[in-house]
Amino acid sequence: MSSSTSKLLNPTITSSKLPLLRSSAGPFLLVRVRRIKPRSAMSPFCYAVHRISLADVEKEPYFEHVIHDLIGFIGDDRIVAHNYAYEYNTLRREFERAARPTYSRERFRCTMALAKRAGLLGKLRHACAQAGISIDHLREEHDALNDALLAAHLFLKLTPAERS
Predict the structure, then answer these.
(1) Which tens digit of pLDDT belongs to each residue from 107-149?
(2) pLDDT at residue 30 greater than cutoff 70
(3) Cα separations (Å) of 98 from 9, 39, 57, 65?
(4) Percent of the chain beyond pLDDT 70?
(5) C-alpha dihedral over 60, 7, 116, 82, to 10 degrees?
(6) 17: which DSSP letter?
(7) Cα(98)–Cα(2) distance, rounded to whole angstroms?
(8) What is the C-alpha separation between 146 and 14, in angstroms, rounded?
(9) 0.70 cut: is pTM over it?
(10) What is the pLDDT of residues 42-87, one digit of tens each?
(11) Does an H or E element contain 110, and which?
(12) 28 pLDDT above the threshold of 60
């Protein structure tokens, strides 16, 4: 992948939100924040974290209705996520449900692992603050888009050799 054409995706998939970002080592282009209606019941924990209820996403499409857009967006590029195991398992489950082959684990880069290798804390906001990425402007509540942006900035900060 050349840096001029590489896309950076952070699919911070929550119970119902999928923010997609693209970067060529410069500013991020927000392509879309897509609400998705889950096929299974959402746990009370998900509501407590995301403040999105099943009623909020009742008219949104299911994952299998947006999977073609996601596949087209990702193309052959890497997928960046904080705590990638969660994102990988979520994507794998949804791809299997849609009867589509899933992405290999090798396509993913985990900013949590990168942060820990750099001696930073594992929690996303703490790692970003330690790495000099401003978090002061963010609201306290969890937000999938903020997490996607933070993970993307952290990835770019911790992997300068991958873009040169």
Answers:
(1) 888 999 999 999 999 999 999 999 999 888 877 776 777 888 8
(2) no
(3) 21, 11, 19, 9
(4) 77
(5) 0
(6) E
(7) 31
(8) 12
(9) yes
(10) 778 777 777 778 888 889 898 899 899 888 888 888 888 888 888 8
(11) strand 108-110
(12) no
Instruction: Please say whether the beta carbons of 110 and 84 come within 8 A.
Output: yes
Residue 85, amino acid: A
Q: Let me know how long the chain is.
A: 164
Q: Which residue in the block uniquely carries the two structure tokens 């990425």?
A: 133
- Distance, in Å, from the CA atom of 133 to the CA atom of 131, rounded to the nearest integer, reads 6
Exposed e or buried b per residue across 60-76, where buried means at least 16 C-beta atoms within 10 angstroms of its C-beta: beebeebbeebeebbee
Residue 83: how many CB atoms within 10 A of its CB? 17
SS3 content of the chain, % helix, strand, coil (to 5): 45, 10, 45
pLDDT band at 1 (very low <50, low <70, confident <90, very high): very low
Burial class of residue 86 (count of CB atoms within 10 Å of its CB; 0-12, 13-18, 19+) = middle
CA-nearest of 78, 76, 77, 64 to 18 is 64
Pairing of strands 17-22, 29-35: antiparallel
Q: What three-state secondary structure class fits 123? A: coil
